[in-house]
Design a protein that fits this description.
Rossmann fold; single chain; alpha/beta; globular; 5-stranded parallel β-sheet; 192 residues
Length: 192
């Protein structure tokens, strides 16, 4: 069953490796027949959070926020692609996520984390779990950590290690299960 799954990238650094991971997961989701818009904070150029989207009078939010809100509202699930900055969430990712709230409600999220080292960004993923739950898009139990991302994926997002496709397959199966289940429940109403 086709889903709409925005991939939200977390880094704006010039030489970021996150694009490799975002390209990989985007291709993997598209190969399953899903619609996968890429939400790239480097392209969006969002200001530092001063006012959330919902705090603007109707029709007065900046066009970039209106467009992103429309994308998020169409979503069945979200994939967050995050590096680990100082054992924490990248500031560009936090800023992108924090502009919205209700647009995430009742939809699952999944965390793809990466790093240049062996831990694959899992320390940031643990903090992301709490943040995503608070935003109303709780993360699925599994993670997809990508250690040594510069060796595991090439610049186009093609895997260079055979284990990655196996791990990603199980991870995306789990995300689809949660996304379909919550989509069905949203259709019959939500608690508020």
């Amino acid at each position: 069953m086709s889903l709409v799954v925005p991939v939200i990238l977390g880094s704006v650094r010039r030489d970021r490796n996150g694009l490799r991971a975002a390209r990989y997961v985007t291709k993997a989701l598209e190969a399953r027949g899903h619609e996968v818009p890429l939400v790239d904070p480097a392209d969006l150029g969002l200001p530092l959070l001063d006012r959330m989207y919902k705090e603007y009078p109707k029709g007065e939010a900046p066009a970039v926020l209106e467009g992103l809100a429309a994308t998020l509202r169409r979503a069945d699930a979200f994939v967050i692609v995050s590096a680990e900055y100082n054992h924490s969430i990248p500031p560009a990712l936090s800023n992108t996520l924090d502009h919205f709230l209700e647009e995430y409600f009742w939809r699952p999220s999944a965390i793809v984390c990466y790093s240049a080292g062996r831990y694959g960004g899992v320390r940031a993923a643990m903090q992301l779990r709490a943040m995503l739950a608070e935003l109303g898009t709780p993360s699925i139990p599994s993670l997809l950590p990508i250690p040594e991302v510069h060796k595991t994926l090439d610049e186009a997002g093609a895997p260079q290690q055979p284990w990655l496709d196996r791990s990603a397959g199980r991870f995306l199966d789990e995300l689809a299960w949660y996304a379909e289940a919550l989509r069905d429940r949203r259709r019959s109403g939500t608690p508020y």
